[in-house]
Amino acid sequence: MSRILIVNIIIVFIYIIHSFPQTYYLNIQGGAGYARYITDMNKSGFNLNGIISHIRVMWEPEHLLRIGLESGYNSLYTYEESVTDTEFGSTDAKSSLNSIPLFLVISMEIIPSINLTTGFGPSFLKTSFEAFGSQNQSTQISTSYYVAASYSYPLNMKFAFGGEFRWYRIQKIEDGTLSIQLMLQYRLFSW
Questions:
Q1: DSSP of 78-101, one letter per residue?
Q2: How many Å apart are CA 87 and CA 80, to the nearest integer?
Q3: Exposure letters 83-120 (e unless 16+ CB within 10 A, then b)
């Protein structure tokens, strides 16, 4: 008799636990898209169009605010100049600037499926320069931040698909990018 009672209590306890709504989620999001470098440099040879990508892990409690970590890649610009005359002779010159940010992210769902997000943290700026047949690279660190608005459409209980519009600012170079990305979200687990 007591074994049956204990088994019934355990079954009822498990049922009660599973009947509560699961309100804590851990999601992983990835995105990629087009970025436009916003600057006042106006010289021929600059390509201000690039790509942007990110991967973000977000903790989503039952509150409006969500927090997470994000990293990615942002191609800021490339520069090419053919047959440049210098005091050392003629050469072709190529240069590029890319960033790899590491952000602490805060997001808020203002209405269902619409999020406002901000992130701040260091960005690792990688400059590459090639001339006279040799290539030089340097890396600097700068503080940076972004603000974004995104929309996500739930495909099922685990996946969502959407897009994000983002303004990204790098303090050291006092410039940034505007970008638009497609995103895919996967719910890792909930509790």
A1: EEEEEEEEETTEEEEEEEEEEEEE
A2: 19
A3: eeeeeeeebebbbbbbbebebebebebeeeeebebebe
- What is the pTM for the complete model shown? 0.78
Tens of pLDDT, residues 127-180: 998 877 778 888 999 999 999 999 999 999 899 999 999 999 999 888 889 999
Question: For the domain that residue 184 is a member of, what is the CATH number?
Answer: 2.40.160.20
The tokens 């040799």 sit on which residue? 134
The pair of structure tokens assigned to 127 is: 């400059």
- Residue identified by tokens 């436009």 is 36
- Alpha-carbon gap, residue 63 to 1, rounded angstroms: 45
Task: Report the candidate in 145, 49, 142, 135 with the shortest Cα–Cα distance to residue 104.
Answer: 145
- Given a contact cutoff of 8 angstroms between Cβ atoms, the answer to whether 144 and 124 are in contact is no
Residues of the domain holding 111? 24-190
Is residue 78 one of the residues assigned to a domain? yes
